[in-house]
Protein: Iron hydrogenase large subunit C-terminal domain-containing protein
Amino acid sequence: MCDRPVTSESITLTDCLSCAGCVSITDESESEYKAAIEMIKNGGVNIIITPQAKMSLFVTHSAKKNKTFREFEYALVKYLAKYKNIVIDSTVGSKLLLQKEIDLVSRSALEGDKSAPIISTICPGTVLYLVNTLGADIKLSNNLSPVELSSKYVNAIYNDNPNVSIVMCKDKRIEAKKNSCIKYAITTKEFYDHFLKEAWEDKNDLEAQNEFKQNNEEYSEFERKYSVARILDGSTSGGVFEGVLAYLLKAENTSDSLEVIKKIPKHIEFLLPKENKKVLQLFGSSRIISFISKVKKNPSVLLEYLYIEMNMCIGGCLFGPSQSSVVNSQLYMEIMQDSLSQEAVQVDPSMIKETRAFGCYKKSKEKRNYLVEW
Structure:
């Protein structure tokens, strides 16, 4: 079973993202998303939702009704608030993650650790592959994901409500497992099919009741700060890589221009002239597997790099396998450049101290499971 919204009639190996969704679905998984929907209906929940998930829901429901994304976003936030829920956009966590990744790179440089690059990924499928291919001792970034950081942040500054996340991939359910502040993680498709579709189609005047105000005067102060998507400049994977790269260039303090080694949608690679080290961003399982295969044959390849980001989905999280609809990346870029995304909202990374540890998942004898223990 695969619920990725591919446009082809059949799923091929090219379409496969190695997300493990088709082999790790159990009765327990189904009961969990149903429990999450009930929690949302009962209210009193923090709902952490990614901007990519919002866009997929928008394309599914409102784009054909000549609504703008911001109109849809406003209606969604206000509708969930009627159930006494709080909506937090995960771009809050993206800003926190960017600063924490910069701190990690900076700390590594201060300690003189040049043994291996920091490998960063918020994709469980990538973690699975890296840990089981190279071992648990590789230098993976131990920072929490934007969704987890967002949930911990809202618990720290606002309330201690349980957190439910709406995400793009079934593998993100790992964030709702052991040692996490996420109670349940549900996919965009599950949220739409089992909650939003019925609720909104039965109430055709919903968006009219929640008419978007151009100056956002109807948002509460909290919603204005934390419920609205404010996307970092960069690719559809979230903009963290681009932010780290900007920091590294500033730290180089040199007039030498950045050397472009490769810049195509699936493979972005630059050389930092002063450090004589490379930074790398990869998209897609084939690119990741090809690169790691080279590393397995010659581990010294890693020494050429300072920072690496890997994303299993070719277009970043915007094209996660459990989105309710395929989203055009142009929409993402338009939102990234609009006035709301350009607004400065300060967050304090020092409020979140937790990090994660990785270890190979030990499969039980009773059932097959391809996940990694986070």
About this structure: The mean pLDDT is 80. The CA atoms of residues 55 and 165 lie 15 Å apart. DSSP finds 13 helices and nine strands in the chain. The longest helix spans residues 91-110.
